[in-house]
Each structure stands twice: as C-alpha cells, then as structure tokens.
Design goal:
Distance between the termini of chain B: 37 Å
Strand content of chain A: over 45%
Order of helices and strands of chain B: HEHHHEHEHEEHEHEHHEHEEHHHEEEEE
Strand order of the largest sheet of chain B: 2-1-3-4-5
Number of strands of chain B: 15
Number of helices of chain A: 1
Number of helices of chain B: 14
Helix content of chain B: 25-40%
Distance between the termini of chain A: 33 Å
Radius of gyration of chain A: 19 Å
Strand content of chain B: 15-25%
Strand order of the largest sheet of chain A: 3-2-1-28
Number of strands of chain A: 28
Largest sheet of chain B: 5 strands, parallel
Largest sheet of chain A: 4 strands, antiparallel
Largest interface: A-B, 34 and 23 residues
Shape of chain B: globular
Order of helices and strands of chain A: HEEEEEEEEEEEEEEEEEEEEEEEEEEEE
Oligomer: heterodimer
C-alpha cells in the first residue's frame, strides 16, 4: 500500500469516526461532548501515536511525532496533548480534537517522563543525561531552572497544590522532594532499587513509587516523607527476579491501585487502604504504561515487548482484548 | 531501603543506621585502590587496536571512575568521599608489598586488573590479611574453583559462565551439532575444557574436535587452513576456542559449508556490550564513552560493578570489616544495568549475572541474553551459568581466611 492510499484510507476512517462521535455527542452525555474519547498510545520505535476509538477500540488515526515519543500528558483543559521525545529532545504538542501537531517545545536529549504544574504553565521533565529536573515555561518555551538530582532521574510527579515535585533517581535509588518555588531539593527519601514512577493517593497523603529492580512499591507518607510500607508482589509461579514493577495508576476515588509488573507480564490490582494485592491480571509482554478511563471501568496497558495494548475490564478483572499499537508502545492517555 | 526477601542484610543496615547518622555529618573517606601490571600484555597498544571481541579494549580503570561519578549524589548525601588510587605492580611480590603498605594506611578495597596467575598468587599471599580483592579482568575458572579465596570476589564472568551461555544459546536455537576448533596455547586449555563441559551439560553433540595452529607453513596446512579444518564435517555450527584471537578472527566465512562461527569470533558471550540498550545501559554506555573515549567492554563493566558494589555496602556500613559479609549476603541486590538482581555466589564469590551473546563486535548486535527461557534452576536461574554450588570444589563461608577449593 502506498502512502497516498494509506492516507486516503485513514481519512475515510477519520470521517467515519467523526460521524460516530457526532452521533454519540448528540445522544450521550453533553458534558463530555468536547472530549474525543480517543485513546492515545505512543510508540517508541515507530515515532507515532496510535489513536483508538475509546468505544470500538478501532484505530482511528496514526500521528507522526518527533523521534522516540514516550510519556504523554493532556493539558489541564484537555485541548492539547504534550508528547515528550527522547531522541529528538523535544516535546510535540498535539491538538487533541484535530489530531494534528500544532506546536513544539525544545527539551533535552533523553527527556522521558514529565508532569505539568496545575495551572498548565510549567512543564517539569527529568533529564536523564544531565541528572537534573528541568523546569520549562511553556509560554516562552525556555528552560527556567535546572535542579540537580541523582543519576538517571525518571518519574516526575507534581502535587495538586503545585508546591512540591517528586522525582525518582534510578541509580541513586532515591525519591527527591523538590520545592517548586525555591527550585531546591529539600529531602531525599531512600526507596527500593531502581525506582521508576509515581502515583499519589486521592487524598494526597500517600505517594506510591514503583521499584523496578526492588520488585516492590514503596509507600511514602507525604506528611513527613517517611517510607510507611513496602508492598511486594508474588504472582503464582513467578520468582522475585521476574517481578519488575514500572507503571502505576490509581482509581479516582483512590481506593484501588494498578501496578504493571514488567517481566512478569501481569498487572497487580492493589487495595490501597489495606495495601494488599487483590488480583493479578495476565496481560502482554513487559507491560509498563497504564491508563484508566474516567469511569474507572477500563484499564489500558501498554505492552512494550509485544507491541500491543491490553484492554482490561476492571470489574471482571481480566483482559478483554489486545490491540496492535506500533513498535514498543510506551504510554497511554485517554481523552475522556 | 527494604528489598525482598527481608534478610540479615537489612538487620545489619538497621544496626548501622544509628552509627551512620552521627558519621554522615563528619564526612568519611573511602579509598579504593586499583592494582595493575604496567607491562600486562593484554593492554599492548597493537593488540588493543585489533578490538578482538571478548578482549579488553583498554584498562578497566575508567569503569571505576564512572561508578564513583554516577554515585556522587548519594555519596554527597552520606558525606562519603570516594577516591581511586593507582597501584602499579610488576609482579606478585611488588603487588603484595604495596597492598600491605596501603592496608596499614586503612585501605581495604583493591580492584585487581592483573593476569589470572598473579591474581591467584596474590590472593594466596594475602589470605591472612583483612583486605578485600576484586578481580575485574581475569576470566580463569580456576580462580573460582581450586584457587578460590575468601578475600577474593569476581565481577567478571568466568570461562565456564561464558561457555554455558553459548551452549544455552545453541540449544535454544537447536543448533546441536558442534565442530570444535581448539587452540593449544596454555590460555586455551581451560577455555577448551569449559566449552567441552558446556557442550556435554546442555546435551549438544560434539561431531568433531580439531586442534588448530597459526601457521603459514604448507607442511602444517591441515592445522592452519580453516577450509581444510572444516572439510567433510557435517556440523550446525563451528565453535572456535582461541584465547589469543588472531586465528579465530579469520574463521568466519572460511568454512567449507556456510555455517555460523561462535566462541572467540562470530557470536561471542560477553559480560557487557555497548549495543545493549535496556535497563539504563545506553546512559551507562554514554557516560563511559565520554570518560574513556571508547566503548565499554566486559572488564570495564566489571570494574564499574565492583566499585558500585563497594559503594553500596560502604554507604550503609562505615566499618569496612563488615563489608565482606555484607557483600556475601544473599539478600543484597546489585544493579548491573542488565535488568536482573545481581549478587555474589556464596560458595565462590563470583557475581551471578546475565551474559550477552554478541555478534559483529563493536557496533554489532546482541543475539540473545543468557540465561535463556526454559533453562531453570531450583534457586536462581542465573546459577545455570557457570559452576553451581554442588559442582564447585570451592566452599567459602562467612568465616574469613578460607582459601583453596579442596577441604
């Protein structure tokens, strides 16, 4: 198939989607009308974002991006999707409704995970080459501050009040607590080996951190930044060496956490209050990126080594379908 | 830090925490010495230019520097200053004297970048002392077996591990019929024996084993000519064992039948490779290349890993006399950027680790990572590579002063 005919087919699909979404918009909840319902999946090796329809799970678009797109996040108004590219060292900015790239911001080589300030004005990204957290003013597109952290920083999480930024260092095995206004590390918390990513509980009292090589999740009290507990995962038939937790997300009510276990090819479902694993759900190969639908009913899991996304029915606790999603899918974002 | 399984290691840390709290403020110093032979033939400039796969590409010292550099943040936090000291030594006596002199000044950690024979003699000569030796460049199996020693740790994989990794790869590819070409230099003998053992261990079929010789003498062409060496032999793969590397280099594409070449050329089992691109490896490779102006090879990684392991325990335990026991603890989790939880085998103090099956030399590819799927071990699948506890004559314990395999 030539590029031209591919584009034509895609356009037809897009038109179909617009018809479908227009119909849904009329008959469904009007408040959601401006949300596209699209599921965006970044592919590290194809330099594309695959867009699925959130209801039919059919591919509705394939968007070219900068090189090695990984972490993605919606702006607070959900109008734009920011995509960080590791190899180009920049972020592309996508118009979510039009599914077109509309802008770009220069970051640095190796930019992977980022988070936005609650007002959407500042982007904080971990710079694994320079071992620092960089703060970018999205209006001027300039780096306004760099904060030195441990080698190979990865996960970045801003608190809802915007005052604190948490960063993991994969090599120093620490979580750095950074005062956003002062631009300073105010505390270093020792966690497990190779800490990767974060989830904050709904009440903001606990910060959960996945430890890839530690095979665990460290649970940090945000009040005093002490480690309250360490959660371990032992799916049946696996050894601790096979458990490599990376992706993590929580339901909006903060009751349930989902942890992608990497090499173990399972997602753990954890009761947040009791800190107990309730279930392990079998997914594809090396699951990392997770995204939960707004209604908490559907979980999308990016399987990096099987080039697909597992779609999980949260209520039944099992995968319904796996959808092809470009080479080495990294992150999933749902516009709902 | 809490890692499963909860072990004595964490109790030790808990006990040390109080001591550390008071010490962190004062600032501590940790000196790591690197002992090397300035005339070591492995690092002859002309030899290094050849870039033989599996051989060093330069002195591994830079690996240790990179390890210290990437730990800066943690070291600053803990108020620990780590320095590296060069200790050139032409022979065992000189090395022993210099190590003992440094030990008097409080230095306890010594990286050994020395030929295997020297490592064995040195470990023996220093067995009554409390220094810790970390072998980073000698792959000889005997150092982990009969010549093993309580004061000696190994971060470089040994010949048995690399041979097992290769045999697992061949088994998983179902390339079971092997033609073995063997060198006759002293350094080849242990490698040949390791290859033979691995072939047997994994149920491969040795269809023929032939000695080769580097020669242009027409009277010796049966030994020197790869076409003649491989003629009339129906094998899936040619496994060449050549510790020197010059002969092996010309085996690929010279076989009678079109067959892959493995061992010392073609596909080579290595402890590290610059093409490995997961678990933080690209960042480590870039840091190393920036510091050394060349790519990272196995011995460089071994020096990096040994330094990281020393720093890991030194951050937790100010008292160096506890380090040996801490490193031997089976609950320790060392991150070698290979994606697995690494630790030292208690019986011979060899670091258990995955190995890369690399092809195409520098800039080439990685055909697989051993241990492969389906090669299982009752305790730790990494122990399917190399000498397992039951097979080893070496039975080291937490008691210091052990040495020698046969007890």
């Amino acid at each position: 198939m030539t590029n031209g005919s591919k584009r034509e087919t895609m356009q037809k699909t897009l038109i179909k989607l617009f018809v479908i979404s227009a119909t849904t918009a009329v008959f469904a909840v009007p408040a959601w009308a401006k949300q596209t319902g699209g599921v965006f999946i970044s592919s590290e090796k194809d330099n594309t974002i695959t867009v699925l329809d959130g209801k039919t799970w059919q591919q509705v678009a394939l968007i070219k991006t900068c090189k090695r797109p990984r972490h993605m996040q919606l702006t607070p108004d959900s109008a734009r999707l920011i995509v960080a590219c590791g190899d180009d060292g920049r972020a592309d900015i996508l118009d979510v409704a039009k599914k077109q790239m509309v802008d770009r911001v220069q970051l640095e080589q190796g930019a992977e995970i980022f988070d936005l300030s609650p007002d959407g004005k500042t982007l904080y990204f971990s710079n694994e080459e320079q071992a620092q957290l960089s703060m970018v003013n999205l209006a001027t597109k300039k780096v306004v501050r760099n904060v030195k952290v441990g080698e190979e920083p990865e996960g970045v999480k801003v608190t809802p009040d915007g005052k604190t930024i948490y960063v993991t260092s994969e090599v120093a095995n620490m979580v750095h607590v950074i005062d956003a206004a002062a631009g300073k590390v105010v505390k270093n918390i020792e966690v497990g080996k190779r800490p990767r990513r974060f989830a904050l509980t709904a009440d903001g009292k606990e910060l959960w951190v996945t430890n890839e090589l530690g095979a665990s999740v460290s649970i940090i009290r945000t009040a005093d930044h002490s480690v309250a507990a360490t959660l371990e995962f032992v799916p049946k038939g696996f050894r601790v060496d096979d458990i490599t937790p990376v992706g993590i997300t929580m339901t909006r009510d903060g009751k349930t956490a989902f942890v992608a276990l990497g090499r173990a090819n399972h997602v753990a479902v954890v009761d947040v209050a009791t800190r107990t694993v309730k279930k392990f759900i079998l997914v594809g190969k090396r699951p990392w990126g997770l995204a939960l639908s707004r209604d908490n009913l559907t979980l999308y899991v990016a399987n990096g080594m099987s080039d697909d996304v597992s779609i999980i029915d949260v209520t039944r606790g099992r995968a319904l379908k796996s959808v092809k999603a470009g080479r080495v899918p990294h992150s999933v974002v749902i516009d709902d | 830090m809490i890692e499963p399984p909860l072990s004595q290691w964490h109790k030790v840390i808990a006990c040390a925490a109080l001591a550390l709290a008071s010490l962190a403020a004062q600032g501590r110093e940790l000196k790591i010495a690197i002992v090397f032979d300035p005339d070591d033939a492995h690092y002859d400039a002309k030899r290094l230019e050849k870039n033989y796969p599996g051989h060093p590409l330069g002195r591994p010292r830079v690996g240790a520097e990179v390890a210290i550099g990437e730990s800066t943040f943690q070291l600053d936090q803990a108020g620990l200053k780590v320095t590296l000291q060069d200790v050139p030594a032409e022979n065992v006596q000189a090395a022993k004297a210099k190590i003992e002199a440094l030990a008097k000044q409080g230095v306890r950690h010594f990286l050994l970048d020395l030929p295997g024979v020297t490592v064995a003699k040195l470990a023996m000569a220093l067995r009554k002392t409390d220094v810790m030796l970390f072998n980073v460049s000698a792959p000889e199996v005997t150092l982990r077996r009969d010549a093993c020693s309580a004061n000696l740790f190994h971060t470089l994989p040994d010949e048995a591990m690399t041979a097992d990794a290769m045999a697992q790869f061949l088994t998983s590819r179902k390339w079971t019929k092997v033609l073995l070409l063997t060198g006759a230099m002293p350094a080849d003998l242990a490698q040949v024996s390791a290859a033979q053992k691995a072939i047997k261990r994994y149920g491969l079929k040795l269809v023929a084993s032939k000695p080769f010789k580097l020669s242009n003498d027409p009277r010796e062409r049966d030994l020197a000519n790869v076409t003649l060496l491989t003629a009339g032999i129906e094998a899936d793969v040619v496994w060449v064992v050549d510790a020197d590397g010059e002969f092996a280099r010309d085996v690929p594409y010279h076989t009678v039948l079109p067959r892959p070449v493995v061992g010392s050329a073609g596909l080579v089992a290595e402890g590290w490779h610059a093409s490995w691109e997961r678990y933080g490896a690209p960042q480590l490779n870039r840091r190393f290349k920036k510091a050394a102006n060349r790519v990272m090879a196995s011995a460089d990684w071994a020096a990096w890993m040994a330094t990281k392991a020393i720093i890991e325990v030194a951050l937790k335990l100010p008292d160096a006399s506890q380090h040996r026991r801490a490193l031997r603890n089976q609950g320790i989790v060392l991150d070698g950027f290979k994606g697995a939880r690494l630790s030292f085998r208690s019986w011979d103090q060899q670091l258990r680790q995955p190995l890369f099956l690399a092809q195409g030399g520098i800039g080439g590819g990685i055909a697989g990572v051993a241990p492969f799927d389906g090669f299982l071990h009752p305790k730790n699948n990494l122990d399917t590579l190399g000498t397992d506890e039951k097979e080893s004559p070496c039975k080291l314990t937490d008691a210091s002063g052990d040495s020698g395999g046969k007890k």
